[in-house]
Amino acid sequence: MKRILVSGAAGQIGSELVPALRARYGAATVIATDIRDAHDALGKDGIFEVVDSTDAAALDKTVQRHGIDAIYHLAAILSATAEYSPQRAYRINLGGLFNVLEVAREHGCAVFTPSSIAAFGPSTPRDGTPQDTVQRPTSIYGITKVAGELLCDYYFTRFGVDTRGLRYPGLISHTARPGGGTTDYAVEIFYHALQYGRYTCFLAADTQLDLMYMPDAIRAAIELMEAEPARLRHRNAFNIAAFQATPAALAEAIRRHLPEFEIRYEIDPVRQRIADSWPRRVDDAAAREEWGWRAAYDLEATVADMLRSLAPKLGPPSPVPAGGT
Q1: What is d(CA 190, CA 306) in angstroms, rounded to the nearest whole number?
Q2: What number is the average pLDDT over the span 225-246?
Q3: What does the pLDDT read at residue 215?
Q4: What's the pLDDT score for residue 1?
Q5: pLDDT tens-digit map of 9-51
Q6: Other Cβ atoms within 10 Å of 113 Cβ, number
Q7: What is the mean pLDDT of residues 287-314?
Q8: Domain span holding position 18
Q9: Do both 134 and 148 map to the same domain?
Q10: 193: pLDDT strictly greater than 80
Q11: 325 belongs to a structural domain
Q12: Exposed site from 17, 30, 68, 255, fewest CB < 10 Å?
């Protein structure tokens, strides 16, 4: 890859993927874009431009101007937020992807697009969810992800566009706050544990889901895009896994570092319904066999690094705000 464009670069994944790509390929080769101005964060070490992926003409001009040959398309509306605005989620998640694929077809770009465990539904086997299985999601986010996987497959088989993708689990990061996902609790809990010593979780205590620390998620995207094409029987998209946890198990792991930490539960029915339709554990054998995927962080390593990294940023604990946390 010579010139890379990242859409949705100011989001949770992009804010860590852009620096990783720049460190690997050179700052001048990675063009960060988003619909919001994030110049201070992403423009100081390279180029940042405001580009809306639903604007096909603007996207095309940007790709041509910078001689882009690979696109990491991250711009999307996440699962919980999408339920409150399904029309907007459809327009951004699928309309933006269609524009990216068309630009890639016209200019010979490779495309990375993240899918999600949301692409599965309640009729999917929930434990050891296979790479190839029934996909009947019940959320608009999941529907757009399944359609996106199929669209990427179509552009590969019909037009030869080098499309690749991953089904991400819930992602945990200390760099950017979450942006409307069903697994946001797995990030928020660390901030509240350090700031207030307690957290109110919107999912039930025993809701088990696949989770992954962001360094693994970033490395997986880069490794997949660098994989030898001939090895890839699957493309859009690979199951990948790191560890599984419930809110109760995550809270217990935090208590091993912060013994006074407390958790309580106030269930958000929208997010709980979505979480209950997702796998408890996916089978990532295809990713392991086809391009050598291996996670580096388990639950304990993730918790330790999150607390170590966040503590200096947040400072001393604060009083619990009115209404609790």
Answers
A1: 7
A2: 96
A3: 98
A4: 58
A5: 999 999 999 999 999 999 999 999 999 886 666 777 899 999 9
A6: 26
A7: 97
A8: 4-168+214-239
A9: yes
A10: yes
A11: no
A12: 255
Do 198 and 130 lie in one domain? The reply is no
Active-site annotation holder among 141, 155, 185, 297: 141
176 and 82, same structural domain?
no
Q: Over the chain, what HEC string results?
A: CCCEEEECCCCCCHHHHHHHHHHHHCHHHEEEEECCCCHHHHCCCCEEEECCCCCHHHHHHHHHHHCCCEEEECCCCCHHHHHHCHHHHHHHHHHHHHHHHHHHHHHCCEEEEEEEHHHCCCCCCCEEECCCCCCCCCCHHHHHHHHHHHHHHHHHHHHCCCEEEEEECEEECCCCCCCCCCCCHHHHHHHHHHHCCEEEECCCCCCCEEEEEHHHHHHHHHHHHHCCHHHCCCCCCEECCCEEECHHHHHHHHHCCCCCCEEEECCCHHHHHHHHCCCCEECCHHHHHHHCCCCCCCHHHHHHHHHHHHHHHHCCCCCCCCCCC
The verdict on residue 113 lying in a domain is yes
Digit-coded pLDDT (tens) for 62-107: 999 999 999 999 999 988 899 999 999 999 999 999 999 999 999 9
Reply yes or no on whether 84 is catalytic. Answer: no
In terms of domains, do 71 and 195 share one? no
* 289 falls within a domain: no
| Count of domains observed in the chain | 2
